[in-house]
Amino acid sequence: MIFNFRLLEKHYTYILFYSLFFFSSGINTGQAQDLGFSKDTTTAVVPVLPPDSLGRSTPRGTVEAFISAVAGENYEKAAMYLRLDKVLKKNRDKVRLAKALESLLNDGTVFPYSLMSNDPAGKTDDNLGPNLERIGTATVNNEPFDILLESTNGKNGEVIWLFSSETIQRLPTQVEAAPIAPLIERVMPDALNASKWGGVPAGHWFGLIFLVLLAYLLAWAITKAVLFFIPLVWRRARNDPHAGIIKAFSLPIQIYLTVVFFVVCSQEAGISIIVRQRFSNLTVVVGLVALLLLLWQLLNTSTRYVEKRMGKKRNQAAVSAVLFLRRAAKIALVFVGIIMVLGTFGFDVTTGIAALGIGGIALALGAQKTVENFVGSVTLIADQPVRVGDFCKVGDVVGTVEQIGMRSTQIRTNDRTVVTIPNGEFSSLKIENFFHRDRFWFHPVFRIRFDATPDQIRYLLVELRAILYAHPKVDPSSARVRFIEIGTDAFKLEVFSYILAADFDRFLEIQEDIYLRMMDVVASSGTGFALSSQTVYLAKEKQPSEEKAAEAHEKVRKWVEDGDLQIPAFDPEYIKDLQNKIVYPPEGSSVYKNEQKDI
């Protein structure tokens, strides 16, 4: 047997139909019956009609019963599933028509039973008339057409489905008179063709087994060849995660290709429609298994990749969440797969789905807090407002994050106590993370005595800002000192700058050094810090040095005469000269001494 692209093109309808089914989200719910509710049950009476004795009440029932009659070689009964108008009844033998239809179905494409409507009303969303149902396709004289069923009324007024008169009219005379033997019968021994099993020559059953093996080997060879050449063409396919994704696709694609090749080859070889339809639901199930296996493999590959990355970052909370989500997704996948398989074999799963839905709602309501905490933990892991080891403020709790679990987060406070916050509550609180700040805000307000003169204030504005520009641990672009207010008991000078420090302890060290230097400047100006007017001191207050005040006045006068007063803003060249003039750590400190030794 030669398999080529023309063969695929010939059977594109069948392949496309299987593909759309496997990747659709809808689930066949099987034998769901029309309940026939009426808007007003007190006035309307729905007559109960007896079911059709030949099983023609639904499209699926008609096809199953026709093939069953053909398998039993009861063509008189098979003809009762054909809708024959007066012209067909007069001019053509109905038994010959039944045999011709069998030959047409053998050569054509018939949908699996699970994809046929089992509703007496048929499908209403197939863009056909309300009384028509498509159950396959066929080709006569190189002209493809749809095999249709048509609904009509039986003898007792009940709705029955028959092969439409339009389909019967397309049956050619030569098919009726001398059908060509299919390929499977031409290659099988006469002994197997003469012996019949289930109304079909035994050669068809043996041929079916051979085609399964052939389809599998063909799919295996193609899959292996593609997997071999992809890394040669695409280098990224040699490493994770691409290699894992490609590997996840290999087995499901191989199974799916086996189904496609089997369906196409069995039809091309002329395997009887009786045999093909008997295994049609099984081929659908195998295709569904391929799809579910693909999702399963992708789930494993993606979650393991994420788990590996989170493990390198030592994010145990994320690893726990990934493991939990993987288990939950696998359970859901198994449940959906069972529902789809049961629906494929004709079981009514509507009631079961409804019951599980109600049970799920009840379970969710009962475990509301648990679900809330789990969703909160997923939010924390995905958003990552804090990580283990971060110093933060959550609500009114300040401390270091020690653990982020699936239910709660633990914070070690400065008092060395451990506060446990449920993740549902944690994710809804205001979170302030101090760990990621790159600099610290230094913004004291100095209160200067009321007896300070304007020149002393000018002196302070210049010298205090000079300290900020000259200090190597202060961001010069943000540094400023401003005279902001004449208060009720003091002049107020505001300092604004950012200190470049890696952590809070380092910030405190630098802030301490700046405070001490600024205290020296205030003392050298001849004034001092103002004391609160509400404070009563019994001791005699020490007066500022008049000598230093005179020096500050003289220095400001000289700045004014030379045009060098750095108010209201410093000259950029002067700022450039000042930068890093201050030695930090200060001379005489042990840290400075150790650094000098290292140099």
UniProtKB/TrEMBL annotation:
Residue ranges occupied by any Mechanosensitive ion channel MscS domain in the UniProt entry: 370-434
Pfam families registered for this protein in UniProt: MS_channel_1st, MS_channel_2nd, MS_channel_3rd
Keywords of the record: Cell membrane, Membrane, Transmembrane, Transmembrane helix
Record-annotated Mechanosensitive ion channel MscS C-terminal domain positions: 446-525
Location of the protein in the cell: Cell membrane
Topology term for the membrane: Multi-pass membrane protein
Cellular component terms per the entry's GO annotation: plasma membrane
Transmembrane spans: 205-234, 281-299, 319-343, 349-367
Superkingdom: Bacteria
Family: Belongs to the MscS (TC 1.A.23) family.
PANTHER family: MECHANOSENSITIVE ION CHANNEL PROTEIN 1, MITOCHONDRIAL-RELATED (PTHR30566:SF5), YNAI-RELATED MECHANOSENSITIVE ION CHANNEL (PTHR30566)
Protein's name according to its UniProt entry: MscS family membrane protein
Organism the protein comes from: Arcticibacter pallidicorallinus
